[in-house]
Write a structure and sequence with these properties.
By secondary structure, this protein is α/β, with parallel strands linked by helices. It has two domains: about 200 residues, Quinone Oxidoreductase, Chain A, domain 1 (Alpha-Beta Complex), CATH 3.90.180; about 130 residues, NAD(P)-binding Rossmann-like Domain (Rossmann fold), CATH 3.40.50.720. The chain contains twelve helices and 15 strands. Strands 3, 4, 5, 6, 7, 14 and 15 form a seven-stranded mixed β-sheet that branches. Strands 10-9-8-11-12-13 form a six-stranded parallel β-sheet, sandwiched between helices. Strands 1-2 form a two-stranded antiparallel sheet. α5 packs across α6 and α8 runs parallel beside α9. Its EC number is 1.1.1.329. This is 2-deoxy-scyllo-inosamine dehydrogenase.
Length: about 350
């Protein structure tokens, strides 16, 4: 098959022929019809993820058709249209037993722990635990977003963030995760303040329901701008980029007893960043993390998509072939944000 491969961190990837993957006993191989370009792929390429072994094929935000099925899989067959949470859970560890597959103790992740979906085919483990049927009529490009960023944003806003109608929600970084969060929070009846350095990203945020926008490249202090716009601070705030500046601004833009949800990955090898803990204490803030979303939690989100309340299809602003993927991956380091790019490996 053809796949995007990199041999060294941060050096150009290339498209080349590699061996087709084989399904594990409990897994499947999926023919990849669409796979989103997520900033986590860029982090992996930069060497920020200790799970990655070289050479490597990135890609984890995918949808496609089941091609081959392992002997112990009972719920899926060749020809099924599927997407998958990028955290593929084992189904049997204590976290999985508690229903928390998104933090499975023995998770695998396509594009991180093994070769991913910037390829014609990808292997996915524990198919009966992890696969999600793509609803009739949903395109593969839209379904792909449900594999990572849209679903991640849904859990971050709705479950971890416990958004409520009428609340102020600040979203720092309005790319794939952030724009999804803007749309989901607005649909929940929240008033959203979108923060980004890219005018194009802020324009999209407004289109997807943001009531207010802050240009972080122009504002002296984006957190102060959020506090001013929200009458004292947001109830809920997300760092949807993952940087010291956006994490701190998210925490500093909260009101008393507000909730911060860290979604963006911190780039350093240790993933650490300074957090204004004095403010967290004095204002009794909640500091939360959010990691993907388990397959069994998809139905309420899919129902909102089916009824048109949520429109992940609108997030896709560019569709490219496999040959253009290496340059698009590299451009994530420099280019301003403007929606979601989807790779269609067979186009
Ligand atoms: N926790 C999880 O489960 C999970 C899942 C998916 C992605 N992620 C992480 O979420 C983060 C976002 O991913 P993405 O694919 O949406 O990224 P993206 O590149 O699509 O979007 C990032 C956005 O941040 C904006 N930005 C840059 N500097 C900024 C600043 N100083 N202030 C405000 N905005 C700024 C960019 O213009 C862009 O619009 C990444 O770190 C990714 O690895 C985490
Ligand atoms: Zn992702
Ligand atoms: Zn598990």
């Amino acid at each position: 098959m053809r796949a995007v491969v990199f041999e060294r961190y941060g050096e150009p990837a290339e498209v080349r022929e590699v061996a087709d993957p084989q399904p594990a006993e409990h897994g499947v191989v999926v023919r990849v019809e669409a796979t989103g370009l997520c900033r986590s792929d860029w982090h992996g390429w930069q060497g920020h993820d200790p799970d990655i072994a070289l050479p490597h094929v990135p890609g984890h935000e995918l949808a496609g058709v089941v091609e081959a099925v392992g002997a112990r899989v009972t719920g899926w067959r060749a020809g099924d249209r599927v997407t998958v949470p990028f955290v593929c859970a084992c189904g049997s560890c204590p976290a999985c037993a508690a229903g928390d597959q998104q933090v499975c103790e023995r998770q695998t992740q396509p594009g991180f722990t093994h070769w991913g979906s910037f390829a014609h085919y990808v292997a996915l483990d524990h198919a009966d635990v992890n696969l999600v049927a793509v609803p009739d009529g949903m395109s593969y490009a839209t379904a792909a977003s449900l594999g990572c960023r849209f679903a991640t944003a849904y859990r971050a806003v709705v479950r971890q963030g416990r958004v409520a109608a009428g609340e102020w929600v600040a979203v720092h970084g309005c790319g794939g995760v952030g724009l999804s969060a803007v749309m989901i929070a607005a649909a929940a009846g929240a008033r959203v303040v979108a923060v980004d350095v890219s005018p194009g990203a802020l324009e999209l945020a407004r289109r997807f329901g943001a009531a207010e926008c802050v240009d972080a490249s122009a504002a002296a202090d984006p957190a102060e701008a959020v506090r001013d716009l929200t009458g004292g601070g947001a109830h809920l705030s997300l760092d949807a980029l993952g940087a010291p500046a956006t994490c701190a601004a998210s925490v500093n833009g909260l009101r008393r007893r507000g909730r911060h949800v860290q979604v963006g990955l911190l780039p350093s090898p240790t993933g650490t960043t300074p957090v204004p803990m004095a403010r967290a204490i004095a204002l009794e803030l909640e500091l939360l993390g959010s990691h993907g979303m388990a397959a069994h939690s998809y139905p309420p989100m899919l129902e909102l998509v089916r009824t048109g309340v949520l429109r992940p299809d609108l997030l896709v602003t560019a569709t490219i072939g496999l040959d253009a993927a290496p340059a698009a991956l590299a451009a994530m380091g420099t280019a301003p944000g403007a929606g979601v790019t989807v790779v269609e490996p067979w186009s």
